[in-house]
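Hello Y.,

Per our agreement to keep a running log of every chain we model this quarter, I'm adding this entry. I've kept the format consistent with earlier entries: sequence first, then predicted structure.
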Amino acid sequence: MLLNYIWIGFFLIAFVVALSELIVTGDGSVFGAMTDALFAGAKTGFELSLGLAGVLALWQGLLKVGEKSGLVGALSKITAPFFTVLFPSVPKGHPAMGTMLMNFSANLLGLDNAATPLGLRTMQELQELNKKKEEASDAMIMFLCINASGLTIIPITIIMYRLQMGSAAASDIFLPILLATGASTLSAILLVAFKQKLNLFRLPFLLPMGILMTLVGLSFWGIRNISQERLTELSTLISHVVLIGMVALLIGSGLFAQRNVYEDFIEGAKEGFGTAIKIIPYLVAILVAVGLFRASGALDWITKGISYGVGTIGGMDTAWVDALPTMLMKPLSGSGARGLMIEAMQNYGPDSFVGRLVCLVQGSSDTTFYIVSLYYGSVAIKRTRYTLGVSLIADLVGMVTSVALCYLFYAG
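Predicted structure for the entry above:
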């Protein structure tokens, strides 16, 4: 229901802002921009779905090989103690546990092309357990909120953008992004756990989290004396090796189990293509609304209003306000936020306060509205309950943490 109100709100605010612009200035060009955005959003939604069709067919096919071979089931049993704490409604050994593990692993390494199909497959598995087919289950909400929080250990894409923009220290945003995205994800887990009355103070949850934090700390300590270019090369290599390794593991499991790997792959690929078709209406709906909202100038109005309030009324430092467009765009559009991040680095410099802050914001949160629409749309969920509220709060925590860390690491 909240998504419905927000979706309608995008349209209403866009129309009011555009009409106000026409009345005040007499300039109706904004309606032309909104018309372009209307059709561009519909076109982009369809093209994204077509692009996802191939990727989904690939990964759903590979996952089907893993399921038939028993690999996914084995991973489910291994990770059962950890995931049982967060997803108590999912039976131990259920295939969803295995796909969750692979999805989270892909997200941690920034493997977006692999993470999304794995996430959609997990949603399908969770929907099979869902008794209310049009309402999000507790397990779905926890899974989606973790995904929407944008947890990533290796922000390789952002580092590469900084290198291209001429940064003298492209990877110096690594630790702040890790801390900010960690705060975002932790807040999402805690909020959902509070709503669902989950006890997180259990060894199966605390031990893996402690090991993960230790590995992250050791990794950061180990890269201190590595050059920026070499670090980027290593990060890229690790991502590629992990990606191809996942493919080899899935296919290898089929060979080991003496399955007809090709037939299993085709069966899963057909399911992936069907999923891509289902999500077209949901993608078109959210992209059209966001496009109109941005083209109307509503985003600029909000940015200017916050800037005025912070500087004039609050008397606070306003250096971070120049990163507001990226902050406000991030939950709405990944490509839009990426474009604003690059634009900010061009205008202020990649190693400036604002240039670094937009990178922290980009790395500490995810495109919440897109993810909610995509994941829930793939299984025809209409009532998302508190998913959107928790995800947006987690985004806010990530952004506030990003601002604080930017002042701590780079101010002065």
